[in-house]
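User: Run a structure prediction on this.
Assistant: Running it now.
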Amino acid sequence: MVELSVGTTPMSVALLIIASLASAVQPFRPNIVMIIADDLGWNDVGFHGSDQIPTPNLDALAFNGVILNNHYVQPQCTPSRAALMTGRYPIKTGMQGPPLLAAEPRGLPLSYKILPQYMRDLGYSTHAVGKWHLGYYRRDYTPQYRGFDTHLGYYGGFTSYYDYILQDIYPEGEFTGFDLRRNGSIAYDLQGRYATDVYTEEAVNVIHSHPVGRPLFLYVAHLAVHAGNRGKLLEAPQEVINRFQHIVDPQRRTYAAMVAKLDESVGEIVSALHRRSMLDNTIIVFMSDNGAPATDNQRPNIGLFPNWGSNYPLRGAKETLWEGGIRSPSFIWSTTFQQSPRVSTNLMHITDWLPTLYAAAGGDKFAMPPDIDGVDHWYSLQWKLPSPRKQALLNINERDRNAAIITSYETGISRNTWKMIFGKFKNHEFDEYYQDTKSPTNPTYNVQEILASPAGRALATLYPPSATDYTIRNSRFEATVNCGVGINYPAPNCEFRPCLFNLDKDPCERLNVADHNTAITIQMYNDLRYFRSMLIPQSNRGPDIYGADPKKWNDTWQSWAL
């Protein structure tokens, strides 16, 4: 109620009423849950056509939301997370190189405001679960100093799944330490419990304890399905491994169990949101930070951390700019999209999530720095509009001398998406096609399992189910990349001359068409040169193993530059 004093003018009365109404009306803020898988392959989810590993909870969300079939990330962990958090291409932050090692005295520069800080400005409660991998050598680089209210997880690139040990190799030798903490304090009490279960439980606890009336931003960055330490690269509960007897390769069988646990985690998080009556006001984003570090029995020792994932039929793997390394299995779900689920072929890049989610949360777009590279897709996602992004820099690595860029040209009703690659990756070790999982022993795709999954049951309570047997199979067909027979073309050599691919006609990057499209090749090469002019070089600071040595810190990896 507005109280009036003697002598109050009509104009002042109007201003008082407006001020009173403004203070009474709180802006609508959806809850936002981001779930990041680590090293998950394109071909390791059911919604992209794989029958080998059922992912009913992921599929339920995907088929009731928007499957992002042209969503691109960076080729490795740290660069992807830097791009996600800042909305900037990693070349703008100096983070375009390899992932951070545990003993490196650097991190995502503190001069950049990042995603949880923007969410906090809008009144969100912000919580991080799982992997950080953006630096911790000083405490002010760690999650709670960068916008998160709480964090349960690890600072480095990976740990083992039961004992949370991180082993890193340096010229000085191998160094081993414990890396799991709860709000900065070492969490020894969680040793012996499976990591995916630990992070799921924490996410569920955050949801259950979240205060009514305040929006939630929950960032769940799973360890799954990244490989662990040498000697026990892949770990999963034996009873889950036993479900996959149809998979002959024992390593791939264990990997399948790790994916299954990840899928179960998603189901539990969705169920927790449903129990708290939060689901109908929640946006859920799922993605992998990069492609799988694929391997097979013919080359089992390639790469430091193979996980036997599959990017098939896409070429390449993690650490490359081939489609298999950077095209991420991704989707977004909300009740808005459940009314009209679809497969989107709009070009989207991981930098886009900062402005997109900020807009979804009701933030003012003019609060975004003008120099970010991310593009707001919220309205195009809501209204099925064409992508506001026409080009994406995939990366420039000035040390390894490789780069890639995508440009989408639309003329009338037709579209051509061109991709240029320059250079080589890991001495051509990951240039081919790996882990074709088609097999007569694979189980038949089971739509009823999707509808009956915890996520499927929760979604069905919100509206009349829009995902039916017919729509699921139709969307699955549309989201499956099919390159036809004779896919295994040898990789073109892009080391001395750029390669050009028409991704709409050739998503598996079989044919280099640069010589037949000279004008486009020259234009995209000049675009790369333009981005190269903005590149901040990678740091020359080597690891500080003397300062970071876990033996100095009670056999733990800790912030050491206090």
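The two ends are 53 Å apart (CA to CA).
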